[in-house]
Design a protein that fits this description.
By secondary structure, the chain is mainly α. It contains eleven helices and no strands. Keywords: Cell membrane, Membrane, Transmembrane, Transmembrane helix.
């Protein structure tokens, strides 16, 4: 919630500096709110709890399937055609998760399964948010305005969630906490989401999903570095299958000579 409050403040300042009129917001307010709740609040909660119950390496492998789920959701909601290579990429994505889980099959716990399920649900919620984002872009809603309203919606939901779940509101004093929070709020939320929505506006939500192709490798390496996971052939193969699936799913169609 603190992360979202800081990011909301930064987007509000940028929106004020732009001096742009909020055109189209009134007619599309609910899709902007839907984008914010899906991509800034609900998906974050699901992925965070999924990481707590399992490993960040497995969660990033699952999240890389966003390259498949986003085009599928767009095809269902916005009635756009889905290429067959999306299904090929999705199959490789599922295979990457299965391969990564092989070493844990003999001691597969309920927590791991629940964590994986939360990560899958979080990925789907993110893809739904991408659909809202593409729709808002088609309606020419300014990305900074969409981020500001969306982040405010996320702050409200996270505040309600914190109160209902009985969380304690404290101000931590550890420098490492504020260093990590500053990184998440400024770079991982404000800067990253601003660039991502610009990317969606320029090339579309499906092609923008290219960015998640590198997530499995980054998440896997980070998980090994912090001692959360062991570097095994199964993890390496899982990363390879995930990246290959993303590449196939989002590669350009070949044109044949007539």
């Amino acid at each position: 919630m603190y992360r979202s409050i800081i990011a909301f403040g930064l987007f509000s300042i940028l929106l004020y500096v732009q001096h742009k009129r909020p055109t189209g917001l009134k007619r599309n307010l609910w899709t902007v709110i839907g984008f914010g709740l899906c991509n800034f609040a609900i998906s974050y909660l699901l992925l965070y709890y999924g990481t707590i119950l399992t490993t960040s390496a497995l969660v990033t492998l699952i999240f890389s399937m966003k390259v498949v789920t986003t085009p599928l959701f767009i095809s269902i909601v916005l009635k756009q055609r889905v290429s067959k290579k999306i299904y090929v990429g999705g199959t490789l994505g599922i295979l990457s998760v299965i391969v990564t889980l092989i070493p844990q099959l003999h001691q597969l716990s309920g927590d791991v399964l629940l964590g994986a399920a939360l990560a899958i649900l979080g990925t789907c919620i993110t893809s739904l948010g991408d659909v809202f984002s593409l729709y808002n872009s088609d309606k020419n809603i300014d990305p900074v305005l969409a981020n500001t309203v969306g982040m405010f919606s996320a702050v409200v939901l996270l505040l309600v969630f914190s109160i209902v779940s009985g969380q304690s509101f404290v101000i931590p004093t550890q420098p490492t906490y504020w260093l990590g929070l500053s990184y998440l709020a400024i770079l991982a939320s404000f800067v990253a989401w601003l660039f991502y929505l610009k990317l969606v506006k320029n090339i579309g939500a499906s092609k923008s999903s290219y960015m998640v192709a590198g997530f499995p490798a980054i998440g896997g390496i980070a998980s090994v570095m912090i001692g959360e996971s062991q570097l095994t052939i199964y993890l390496v193969l899982g990363i390879i299958f995930a990246v290959l699936g993303a590449y196939i799913a989002l590669s350009k169609e070949r044109t044949t000579a007539s």
